[in-house]
Write a structure and sequence with these properties.
The protein is built from two helices and no strands. The chain is an all-alpha fold. The protein has one domain. The chain is flat and about 30 Å long.
Length: 47
């Protein structure tokens, strides 16, 4: 699960997202899971 709660480095959030998004070994589904579905499941949000 991607976390952006480290507000000490708030200026690096965009850089971190771009870096993770650039990894060629992650397919789009992996990235969706990291950025969205893990948090959805963690927070038990029903769509």
């Amino acid at each position: 699960m991607y976390g952006s709660d480290a507000m000490v480095w708030f200026h690096d959030i965009e850089k971190s997202i771009k870096q993770l998004d650039s990894y060629v070994f992650l397919i789009d589904e992996d990235k969706r899971t990291i950025f969205y579905y893990n948090a959805l499941n963690f927070l038990i949000i029903n769509e």
